[in-house]
Amino acid sequence: MITRRFLLAATAAGAVGASLAWRPRGAHAAGEFSVRHSDEEWRKLLTPEQFAVLRQSATERPYTSPLNKEKRRGTFACAGCDQELFSSTTKFESGTGWPSFWAPIADTAVGTERDTSLGMVRLAVHCSRCGGHLGHVFDDGPRPTGLRYCMNGVAMAFKPLAT
């Protein structure tokens, strides 16, 4: 039989476990990334929305990014450090409301880590240069990789191909 005391203890333990499992994806070891700034410096360099996503792992509202409709040839770079992340040639319409790509521009452009926040198990994607949170990668994308890099548009800047 479950007692009220047991139920309260289990709920408290679950809440503690959930809070320990969640942490901002930008909170990596200090020496891990070549571009490093204090939170104060990041706040000066980024808009409030960019700071929330890149440094605190927030998610922008779906269908709000102008990059969803970006069809020109070019590259998508990290809004935090300007590292090139994705080519327009790998962008596709996923119908999710966020810019989606089937592969990064190079294997070394992004990193991933397990994300258990919000009661889900996902693979978070971050910029390999500054550690900024970009979004998540899922295994329901198109060929040739079968991957869907579902990125926050506010975390990126588009650089059109020079003509």
What would you say about this model in short?
The protein is of the alpha+beta class. The chain has three helices and nine strands.
What does this structure look like?
- This protein has one domain (4-160): Metal Binding Protein, Guanine Nucleotide Exchange Factor, Chain A (Beta Complex).
- The longest helix is centred in the N-terminal third of the chain and has 18 residues, at 4-21.
- Helix content is 21%, strand content 25%.
- It is of the alpha+beta class and 163 residues long.
- It is built from 3 helices and 9 strands; from the N terminus they run αααβββββββββ.
- The chain has a 6-stranded antiparallel beta sheet. A 3-stranded antiparallel beta sheet has the order 2-1-9, with no helix packed on it.
Average pLDDT: 86
Number of helices: 3
Strand % is 15-25%
The parts where pLDDT drops under 50 for at least 5 residues are 6-30
How is the secondary structure organized here?
Layout: H1 4-21, H2 39-45, H3 48-56, E1 74-78, E2 84-87, E3 91-92, E4 100-101, E5 110-115, E6 122-127, E7 133-138, E8 148-151, E9 156-160
Antiparallel strand pairs: 1-2, 1-9, 3-4, 4-8, 5-6, 6-7, 7-8
